[in-house]
Every structure is written in structure tokens, then in C-alpha cells.
Amino acid sequence: MSEQKEEMEEVEVIHSWSAPRSLSTCLMYSFAQRDDMEVLDEPLYAFFLRTTGIDRPYKEELLSEMESDGNKIVKEVIFGPGRKKYRFCKHIAKERLYGLPNDLMKKGKHFILIRNPIDILPSFDKVVPPTFLELGLADLVSIYNELCELGRAPTVIDAADLKRDPEATLRGLCDDLEIPFQDAMLKWEAGPKPVDGIWAPWWYKSVHKSTGFQQSKKYPVPFPFSLYELLEQSLPLYNSLRRHVKQNSSPIKSSLPPPDLPVPANEKLLAWVGDEILPRESAKVSVFDSVVQGGDSVWEGLRVYSGKIFKLDEHLDRLFDSAKALAFINVPTREEVKEAIFTTLIRNGMFDNAHIRLSLTRGKKVTSGMSPAFNLYGCTLIVLPEWKPPVYDNTHGITLVTATTRRNSPNNLDSKIHHNNLLNNILAKIEGNNANADDAIMLDKDGYVSETNATNIFLVKKGHILTPHADYCLPGITRATVMDLVVKEQLVLVERRISLSEFHTADEVWTTGTMGELTPVVKIDGRIIGTGQVGPVTLRVQNAYKKLTEESGVPIPTYHRT
Question: Gene3D superfamilies annotated for this entry (predicted)?
Fold first, then answer.
């Protein structure tokens, strides 16, 4: 007895949490191959069956051979002494019931194994009928959140990664668990194992044929559509956990690292989509939506200053005019759009230095196709708020180049319709990017300046201020505001056709737009504009614009200046 006592020592416990049919048994076999590891197959199972009363073909045998007292399981079985350095405990998430000692979550190292329910469900009902509770994804989310609250955020791995690249996935997992990887983890003998639970003959027939993590077949089995609603319920839970996986388990995966956001605070925001407010990663439209099918949508950009939305009514006028020009039907009312905007801003606590991308799509289609006759659900409203300072350098100025891409003619697509199909502008922006310029000037079909890819444009020459006719360009709200300010400042305003050389030789140039406000231009196509500094007229109009944004706008309900 004394020799046996000497062999027993305190072990470090590794908890694996998963839903059924998630390769959890394969992973248990993998860890069982290590020379420093003992494994336990679902030590909480007997406690779960005794507590819930759920029936299984093997229930009586299991309860007679396994410990079913929750306290004893945690203290003596899971955390009891052992003969090896580590103990791997395979847990099924639904088996963690209330009443178990807190040490279960507070001690040891935890990780979560997930698998897409679209891969789990087709094979689930071989033993028991699949239900939301049997899948246990809600329990997995609860476990993840509880561990995070304890300051012990668990590693999350996806079964798809184990299948695609088992060595890399296991090495990463071992690194996170702070244990050395062993090559033995990649292979095991086929057949039943001494570590198998009593239930193995009912559940493990397939895994007993395996000798390692097998790659998925190129094409999956058909999905049983009788389980469609269960998939709809469970998939969001899987996706919420999948966001925490280090490796991308998508079959069409990107090798790009996660990018840094221009404003990190925008990582957590709430957006309005359709008729509900959703977190950033869940704010999506249907693949049947017209904006996806054909860019069939209209939009506006709005800015928020000191608890007020600047020029809100003017932007809504243009939104509804654009929707009418495109023959949208079942359009939300003006009041409904306003309420959605206000609600979204209030929910985000965005009352200043914020920008809204407001979109109204023709809506979801009953089947894919071009015809608006397929749009029978009504329009889709999107309110996307972001913390966003002006996007250009309004202090030192920007550089422009002239694009070869010409601005759309009203003969083709009237720019007075503020639509989401921005390919014409994007092609010009690509030219600007390739030239390392901030934006690109776009000419009309006759070679006169129309606007930039994103803004309207003005020039100053001998005290006169000129801007192109809004024949090819969008008649911007900020453009109209600045034109009014120019007149109020008792400056001479001229609206006419303007050639490119007139911009090259101007005393001053600036652009206007909601996202960038009023932005000085100091160089066009390599030509220095004026002195290469922000000019006096530009500064004067900038100041007048800033004052106007401070004094006017539609107040956001409930906002109170502090």
C-alpha cells in the first residue's frame, strides 16, 4: 500500500468541453497517446443521468459502475491524485449541471471544442433524436462566458481545423495549455480502448475505425431538412464561439491576419438592420437582398455634432427622392427612418464625432434574379453608426490625381440618384490609390471636371469661387451648404463647366462631403495649388461651416449636453 501511495501524486487537470459528435472522442484518444497523460471519458455522465432522469440503453450499467455523486466526482475523480503529470477530462457541456462544486471551473486548464451543427446534425439521431438541449451549444456558450468572468478565457478550437491540419491545431492547443506537443498525439490503434466509457458500443462505432484525425470528404452528405429549424437555432451559438478560434476553419479561408480598425472603439457597435438592432458581427443582410443581388439600394451619409444630426431632413429628402426614382415600393415612412436613426445612436451612446451610413435597399427577393417583381418583403433599412472623425487631413490638405474613368452620364445612370452601385467611383478610387493620392478627380464625357470619386469640388481664382454644374456629379448636401455659406460670406460664386487646367492653375481648391467636411487640396496631378498651403478663402469658409455645424441640426431625443 505504501508503494502505491508513493506512486500517486497531484495531477494537473485539462478540461475539454464540447457538444456531442464533435470529434471529442478522437481528441481524447489523441491525448491518451501521450506518455504524461491519463484520460477520463465523461466523468460527469453518471451524475447527469441520475440528476436529470434521462433514459439511455446503458443507464443501469453506467450508474452501477460510475460515481454519480457530483461532489465526489469533482473532488475525488477529476481532481484526485494520479500516476501521471496530467489528467485529460473529456466533458460534454450539457452534463455540467447546477450543484457541482465551484472547483470544477476554477481549477485546471479549460478549452472548448466546437463543430458546425450542419456537420453534427446529419449523424446525430443514430442513438437519440437531436434536440436543442441535446446539442448543448447553449451550454458551451455559458461555459465560455463563465470562464471569461473568472478571468480564465478558454482556448476555442474547431473540429474542422483538427480534420484539415491536426498537427498545427494540436501544437497550437498544446501551446495554449502550456504543455509540450508530442508526435504520438497524431495516431492511435483502431478498435475499442480501455479508456472508453460504458456507452462506447452505442456511440463509438465510427471512431473505433479511426487511427487518426481523418480529413473531411471533399463533399458533405445531404442535410436532413427536417432539422432545418434546429440548425437555425444552433448556428448563431456556434458562430459566436467560432469568432474566438485562432485558426480560420472556413473551406475558403483567408491567410490575412485580422486587420486593425481605423477607430478601435468601432469593434463593438450596434447597427440597425431591417427592424432590429444587432452587434457588429451579426449585422448582416440576406443573400437574397437586392443590395447583394445587384447593388440595388440608395444611401446617405450623416454626421452627428454635439447631440444633433446635421442636415438630417435634407438627407432624408434625397433618400426618399432616390428611392422614388428607382421605383421602390413598401418604403418605410420618414418617421420610421428617423426613429431607427435616433434609436441606434442612443443605443450606441453616439452623440458627437460620429458618422452614419444610412442605406435603404429594395429589400429581400423571393428568389434570386434582377426583376423588382421578386421583391415581395418590403425594403431593408440599415443604420450603420461609427465613431469617425473627418476622413481627410483638413488642416494640411490632400493630393488629387485625375482618373481616366469618366463620371457616369445621365444618359446611362443619373448621378442625382444616390445609389449604392458605386463601381464607377470605385474604379476611379483604384486609380487614385495606385497613384498614392488621397482621391481622384473624375471628368465628364466632354473632358470637363465633374467631381472626385467621393466628393464635390470647388476652386478659387482671383477672389471668385467656382464649382462644376451638377449635371454629371451628385448635387451633394454639403456642396449646397457650402454654396449658401459662400453667398452669406459675400463672396462671388460661379457654377459652370470647368476644365481640368483651370483646377491646375487655381489659387485654392477644396472638396466637400459629409464624411470629410470641407477639405483643402494642395496638389493636383503633380501641380502645386497656389502656395501649397491652405488658402485664406478656404479657411474662411471652413470656419463658417464649423460654426454652422455647432449651431444647427436635428436634436437626438434624450441627449443632454454635460
Answer: 3.30.470.10, D-amino Acid Aminotransferase, subunit A, domain 2, P-loop containing nucleotide triphosphate hydrolases
